[in-house]
Amino acid sequence: MKDAMTPATTIERLPIYYRCLQKLDRMDVDVISSKDLGERIGIPSTQVRKDLSYYGEFGRRGVGYEVPVLLKHLRKILGLAQEWEIVLVGAGDLGHALSKYGGFKKLGLNINHVLDVDSDKVGSKLGDVEIQHIDELVDVVKENNVDIGIIAAPGDYAQEIADELVGAGVKAIWNFAPARIKLPPEIELRNEDLSIGLISLAYHLSRK
Amino acid sequence: MKDAMTPATTIERLPIYYRCLQKLDRMDVDVISSKDLGERIGIPSTQVRKDLSYYGEFGRRGVGYEVPVLLKHLRKILGLAQEWEIVLVGAGDLGHALSKYGGFKKLGLNINHVLDVDSDKVGSKLGDVEIQHIDELVDVVKENNVDIGIIAAPGDYAQEIADELVGAGVKAIWNFAPARIKLPPEIELRNEDLSIGLISLAYHLSRK
């Protein structure tokens, strides 16, 4: 797989293909053309073919893609064929929203552990998961071989939490705190800056 | 301004520059080099200069950027020098998280109106804003000349809400519902798909 050559925009579209194919599969659609797939996603068929070509030859000329086959391939490509242990740090509003977010479950991704600093929240449940105290962070990560840490805590604590997660063995951090954090290069880090979306809209609107 | 030529990645970095400069300004830093600015943001100085060159000649060779001047320019470029009327549809967990999100306020962006379908929530407050019933949507948008609509509602209702917002005069939609919506091309639309971040991490981790 020519991973280093795959554009980030292609990678970001893979989950969109995946969910579209899941829907088609549920509707018992067997085959879909790149044109139809593109129309459902809102991109040209040439882009669909280019995106998927980074990962192999999945379609047949004049026929299209076999939905269950492409779905299986994408599942593997996206790393969804394996189980991930995920810890969420911060059971505030955003933590609640993330743990209830329907989009993750549809993809087979589950938040397995939730930590919070507030002792009053400890023991109560967020979905199916019992909230544990943040002092348990290192134990939770080590005992469960947690792969991914989601930080939904105030910005002032983000770096400290990230350092603790990484020190305990977490290999990827998804940071929602409005603060940029720094981590060793071998750790996958994604800063999810919610304000960017809103500013981007303001930016484009102010140009009209 | 060469807007059509500006890469999306440059536009997405502008708010990051802006917040970094706000911080420097509060620290009474008068001048910053592209190297120092890049280091704070985590990108090379050449990229800083390239990004800002799309909007004008702000720096002085061998000196750097005057922080208050660049801040003022960026504020205008980002559309933050004007007031935006913003309505949030959906006062669930995500709605709560968005309306409390510190990052917006720091940028001078405020959610002015909140709507929800649940009559029990109507009249209670989300921050400083009283929740109104979703039946008031058209009136709220028209009476207040609302510019931007944020959808934090279940996916099944997203398209309907978006259509109502646009019909009432909203010019930009920020959609958090896990469903892709379609709108006329003149409307700015941003689908914020939260699962993409998590899948992107799984994707990269599965390659290690």
Automatic annotation (TrEMBL), chains A, B:
**DNA-binding residues per UniProt?**
16-55
GO BP annotations of the record are: negative regulation of DNA-templated transcription; response to redox state
CoA-binding domain sequence ranges: 79-180
Its GO CC terms are:
cytoplasm
InterPro entries attached to this UniProt entry: CoA-bd, NAD(P)-bd_dom_sf, Rex_actinobacterial-type, Rex_DNA-bd_C_dom, Tscrpt_rep_Rex, WH-like_DNA-bd_sf, WH_DNA-bd_sf
Q: Which UniProt keywords apply?
A: Cytoplasm, DNA-binding, NAD, Repressor, Transcription, Transcription regulation
Q: Which SUPFAM superfamilies match?
A: NAD(P)-binding Rossmann-fold domains, Winged helix' DNA-binding domain
Q: Provide the residue positions that the database annotates as binding NAD(+).
A: 90-95
Q: Report the subcellular localization.
A: Cytoplasm
What's this chain's function?
A: Modulates transcription in response to changes in cellular NADH/NAD(+) redox state.
Subunit info?
Homodimer.
Q: What is this protein called?
A: Redox-sensing transcriptional repressor Rex
Q: Which organism is it from?
A: Selenihalanaerobacter shriftii
Tell me the gene name: rex
